[in-house]
Design goal:
The chain has 145 residues and is of the alpha/beta class. It contains five helices and six strands; from the N terminus they run H-H-E-H-E-E-H-E-H-E-E. The chain folds into two domains: 35 residues, no CATH class; 93 residues, Nucleotidyltransferase, domain 5 (2-Layer Sandwich), CATH 3.30.420.270. Helices cover 36% and strands 14% of the residues. The strands form two sheets. Strands 3-2-4-5 form a four-stranded mixed sheet, with helices on one face.
Amino acid sequence: MSQSISRRRKPMADINVVPYIDVMLVLLVIFMVTAPMFNQGVQVDLPQAPSDPIKEFMEQDEPFIVSVDQLGKIYVNKGSNPERPMSLGEFRQLAPGMLAQEPTKQAYVKGDQNVVYGRVVEVMVALQQAGVPSVGLISQPETDS
């Protein structure tokens, strides 16, 4: 009897981590595939200007940004479809509703450097008519080339 008691297996204290590594690698692949999809926005060739970053812009969660591309199409980063272009008339109708939730929020305009300057001014005027207290312009920092 004493031999059968001493032959019992001791409990194993090691944890099998192989399944956890497999799960981690699967999650890594999923995040690598979906990460490019999170980069939303409209491609705008911003003009370069020597300026410092705006502190308020860096501190805001998601500022209200209106983009005007090279063809003069208007895009808004808020709303149901930020990649859908809209006309100036549509923008004038929708802007007050989009800004009504945060009336003190500052708005920024990203105008392509090749767009007609008057189009950017029209967007800025529409924002001011919608009740935006302050409209800022976004530019690209100068590069030494």
